[in-house]
Amino acid sequence: MHVVFVVPMPKSWSKKRRELMVGLGHRSKPDIDNYVKGLLDAVFDDDSCCWDLRSSKLWGVTGRIVISDALRGPGLTDLFKRYAEICAK
Protein backbone atom coordinates (compact mmCIF):
# COMPACT_ATOMS: atom_id res chain seq x y z
CA MET A 1 0.00 0.00 0.00
CA HIS A 2 1.21 3.53 -0.75
CA VAL A 3 -0.19 6.41 1.27
CA VAL A 4 0.36 10.02 0.19
CA PHE A 5 -0.43 12.74 2.70
CA VAL A 6 -1.01 16.02 0.86
CA VAL A 7 -0.45 18.88 3.31
CA PRO A 8 -2.15 22.18 2.45
CA MET A 9 0.16 25.13 1.93
CA PRO A 10 -0.22 28.11 4.27
CA LYS A 11 -2.49 30.84 2.92
CA SER A 12 0.19 33.35 3.88
CA TRP A 13 2.51 32.05 1.15
CA SER A 14 2.75 34.09 -2.03
CA LYS A 15 1.19 32.78 -5.24
CA LYS A 16 4.67 32.29 -6.70
CA ARG A 17 5.89 30.27 -3.72
CA ARG A 18 2.73 28.14 -3.75
CA GLU A 19 3.24 27.37 -7.45
CA LEU A 20 6.86 26.38 -6.78
CA MET A 21 6.08 24.15 -3.79
CA VAL A 22 3.04 22.18 -5.00
CA GLY A 23 3.95 18.49 -5.21
CA LEU A 24 7.30 18.87 -3.46
CA GLY A 25 8.21 16.97 -0.31
CA HIS A 26 6.92 18.36 2.98
CA ARG A 27 10.00 18.23 5.23
CA SER A 28 8.76 19.92 8.38
CA LYS A 29 6.68 18.83 11.36
CA PRO A 30 4.48 16.95 11.98
CA ASP A 31 6.59 13.90 11.19
CA ILE A 32 5.29 11.40 8.65
CA ASP A 33 5.20 8.57 11.19
CA ASN A 34 2.61 10.54 13.17
CA TYR A 35 0.43 10.84 10.07
CA VAL A 36 0.75 7.10 9.37
CA LYS A 37 -0.02 6.12 12.96
CA GLY A 38 -3.10 8.37 13.03
CA LEU A 39 -4.41 6.93 9.77
CA LEU A 40 -3.90 3.30 10.77
CA ASP A 41 -5.45 3.88 14.19
CA ALA A 42 -8.48 5.51 12.55
CA VAL A 43 -9.01 2.75 10.00
CA PHE A 44 -8.13 -0.46 11.84
CA ASP A 45 -9.02 -1.71 15.31
CA ASP A 46 -5.80 -3.73 15.21
CA ASP A 47 -3.26 -2.46 12.69
CA SER A 48 -0.81 -5.32 13.36
CA CYS A 49 -2.16 -6.96 10.18
CA CYS A 50 -0.58 -4.21 8.05
CA TRP A 51 2.73 -5.63 6.91
CA ASP A 52 3.71 -3.46 3.95
CA LEU A 53 3.40 0.31 3.71
CA ARG A 54 5.08 3.13 1.82
CA SER A 55 4.25 6.71 2.66
CA SER A 56 4.98 10.17 1.30
CA LYS A 57 4.21 13.68 2.56
CA LEU A 58 3.83 16.41 -0.08
CA TRP A 59 2.75 20.04 -0.30
CA GLY A 60 -0.55 20.63 -2.06
CA VAL A 61 -3.26 23.20 -2.60
CA THR A 62 -5.83 21.16 -0.67
CA GLY A 63 -5.10 18.71 2.15
CA ARG A 64 -6.03 15.08 1.48
CA ILE A 65 -4.91 11.50 1.90
CA VAL A 66 -4.42 9.35 -1.21
CA ILE A 67 -4.22 5.59 -0.68
CA SER A 68 -3.32 3.23 -3.48
CA ASP A 69 -2.41 -0.41 -3.86
CA ALA A 70 1.04 -0.35 -5.42
CA LEU A 71 0.24 -3.43 -7.50
CA ARG A 72 -3.21 -2.42 -8.76
CA GLY A 73 -3.31 1.37 -8.58
CA PRO A 74 -5.86 3.48 -6.70
CA GLY A 75 -8.60 1.40 -5.13
CA LEU A 76 -9.35 2.40 -1.59
CA THR A 77 -12.42 0.20 -1.14
CA ASP A 78 -10.79 -2.95 -2.51
CA LEU A 79 -7.62 -2.31 -0.54
CA PHE A 80 -9.35 -1.91 2.81
CA LYS A 81 -11.57 -4.91 2.07
CA ARG A 82 -8.46 -7.02 1.45
CA TYR A 83 -6.78 -5.83 4.65
CA ALA A 84 -10.00 -6.45 6.61
CA GLU A 85 -10.12 -10.02 5.28
CA ILE A 86 -6.51 -10.59 6.33
CA CYS A 87 -7.13 -9.12 9.78
CA ALA A 88 -10.22 -11.28 10.28
CA LYS A 89 -8.20 -14.50 9.90
Quick recap of the structure?
This protein is of the alpha+beta class. It has one domain. Helix content is 36%, strand content 25%.
Task: Give short descriptive properties of this protein.
89 residues; elongated
Describe this structure in words.
The chain is α+β, with helices and mostly antiparallel strands and 89 residues long. The protein has one domain (2-88). Helix content is 36%, strand content 25%. A four-stranded mixed sheet has the order 2-1-3-4, covered by helices on one side. It is elongated.
Which helices and strands, and how do they pair?
Blueprint lengths: L1 E7 L6 H7 L10 H12 L10 E7 L3 E6 L3 E2 L1 H13 L1
Parallel strand pairs: 1-2
Antiparallel strand pairs: 1-3, 3-4
**How many whole angstroms does the radius of gyration measure?**
15 Å
- Average pLDDT figure: 84
Number of domains: 1
Overall geometric form: elongated
How far apart are the first and last residues' alpha carbons, in Å? 19 Å
| Structural class computed from helices and strand pairing | alpha+beta
Compute the number of helices.
Answer: 3
The level of helicity is 25-40%
Major pleated sheet: 4 strands, mixed
Low-confidence stretches: none
What's the arrangement of strands in the largest beta sheet?
2-1-3-4
Tell me the number of strands: 4
| Share in β-strands | 15-25%
Order of helices and strands: EHHEEEH
